[in-house]
Amino acid sequence: MQSIVSLLPALPTIRIVDVGAMDVGDTPYAPLLAAVPCEVIGFEPVEEECRKLNDAGQAGRRFLPYVIGDGSEQTFHECAYAYNSSLLEPNFGLLRWFTDFERLFAVMATKPVQTRRLDDIAEVAGADFLKMDVQGGELLVLRGAERFLRDILVVHTEACFSPLYRGQPLFADLDSHLRARGFFFHRFGYFGGYPFRPIPVSDGSPSLTNQPLWCDAIYVRDFQGFDLLAPAQLLKLAAILHENYASPGLAAVALAEFDRKTGSALQPRYLDAIGIA
Length: 277
What we know:
single chain; alpha/beta; Rossmann fold; seven-stranded mixed beta sheet; two-stranded antiparallel ribbon
């Protein structure tokens, strides 16, 4: 699908907040970075990983070693594989059912941490896009972000269907929380799973890992309230939906509201450009 950028007026910088910014080889907003002007402020509590991100020296990206949550004191569990580290304790009662999973979640050290609320961090004010990958701590992040969420257009979050960590809120809990704050579920971005014992991890058959354990879920500001958004927000939203999620239908809805507010005719031009006349 061709880029939307050439059809739009000069696009304001899209501000991205990345909570759990460790580089795991797949940045879920990479298409957006390649297409439109963006600024990223990220948070990564594993200090070595945070240093790596800053050492990469990518323009417009800054990373801080904060533990984001609801402002409470918590215990951080450093796991054998850093990307499984969490404020929650791994749920070995469940993990043992899956091949090699216990080894990946083995706790190597724990330390007390003071979490910080997004509502209290000046650098993230006025952000447009929230990405979360915090290994079960998503609801803690959201509970500390009530004011912050009022400006957010899109939430891209990891969520689990089974509790990989003890006491972990699941997809249904996050879904309920976000819907109550004016977001609606748009689509899944990814499903992840692991084979049940004794199936080996190396076996590439998809049917052997078709028990989904986690996913990426994308939430968008409720389209029934697009009239409450400013014109600049509608342009940003259309760009995010088109460039990052290949969602022309909802992008067109955002452009229709932009046209209504400004008297322009972007939606017909957009539909023509993507071959829908």
